[in-house]
Amino acid sequence: MSTNVRSGSERCPCMSGLPLDECCGPILAGERKAATAEALMRSRFTAFAVGDRDHLLASWHPRTRPRVLDLDDTLQWYRLDIESTSGGTPFDTTGEVVFTAHHRRGGIRGSLHERSRFERLDGQWVYVDGVVS
């Protein structure tokens, strides 16, 4: 995990209400796989929030993964709203998650709304792509 990761007893940045060490922390650390597409989406948001490029790249489908991932370190990702999910259960091979991720840069707030697609690849969920609206 990135050196920006907070204490595991703090609330997880994905807004699940759980402590980081009970939610996305083990997924980012590679100790547990995401059981659902939504769980992977939450872990990816947390990775953006803490600057964990390795998890973002590892959880990206090889077909669509960028060679280099430049994160904007001036953005502070602070809230994730999951709006809907389709498929993406432990019994599915594909899934979709619609979400809004909120961020701040300085004193200015912004958000990103995306419909993300996920696939199960070799037994684990990976991010395929998304449509930003």
Automatic annotation (TrEMBL):
<dbReference type="InterPro" id="IPR023006">
    <property type="entry name" value="YchJ-like"/>
</dbReference>
<dbReference type="InterPro" id="IPR032710">
    <property type="entry name" value="NTF2-like_dom_sf"/>
</dbReference>
<dbReference type="InterPro" id="IPR048469">
    <property type="entry name" value="YchJ-like_M"/>
</dbReference>
<dbReference type="Pfam" id="PF17775">
    <property type="entry name" value="YchJ_M-like"/>
</dbReference>
<feature type="domain" description="YchJ-like middle NTF2-like">
    <location>
        <begin position="36"/>
        <end position="130"/>
    </location>
</feature>
<protein>
    <recommendedName>
        <fullName>UPF0225 protein IDF66_00325</fullName>
    </recommendedName>
</protein>
<comment type="similarity">
    <text>Belongs to the UPF0225 family.</text>
</comment>
